[in-house]
Amino acid sequence: MKLNELKAIKLAELFSALSDASRIRLISLLLEGEKSVRALADGLGMTESAVSHQLRGLRQMHLVRTRKSGRQVFYSLDDDHVSRLFTLGLDHVQHG
Amino acid sequence: MKLNELKAIKLAELFSALSDASRIRLISLLLEGEKSVRALADGLGMTESAVSHQLRGLRQMHLVRTRKSGRQVFYSLDDDHVSRLFTLGLDHVQHG
DNA sequence: TGAATATATGAACAAGTATTCATATGTTAC
DNA sequence: GTAACATATGAATACTTGTTCATATATTCA
Hints:
The structure is a homodimer. Chain A is an alpha+beta fold.
């Protein structure tokens, strides 16, 4: 596979973004469709601040994108890589 | 997707196992086929101890399996989920 | 304008993690 | 048996990370 160090780091960063139960649950909510920060915080029983901090990381990894409407910011999954990684991972956890 | 907390944790643990550049490079070496601890350590420029510690985590997540032969232990990828996650992640990093 | 709402951000602390070093276990050769 | 080798493990340390709290920015409504 001949993976150079930079790509290894990038890949590790991608998986790091998925390596926390709170973020996994955020993503599982976003699989239902776009949601505001408050809706996500309510759905997970987290503070808006904590959710916002986590979303920042997901944004930086291009796993989610935002749409602003008034004073709300709606988050949604950025592309289908995310849901495919999610599904594949879940598959491994359930059977593997 | 209705993900309960336990599954979220399991999934996060799976991705945690992939969330470190050293482990990513270990896996990229194992994509070439099974290798001994020493071969992996040499290939990555890490100590055998560090590699052994990391392999332990990958073993616990069922991402790699072992075959013992004499005093050597050969590691290989456990199932194709691993390489599929790896490839899908790489795809996201390179294009996304 | 000012108050209320929604989100973002910085600092600080607690909890988790990767590596190193020393040591232990298990295997082969003599 | 002992010596040498391959791997594993425990403890310690340095580094990273998630949450909380306080505060900042931005938008709407009166």
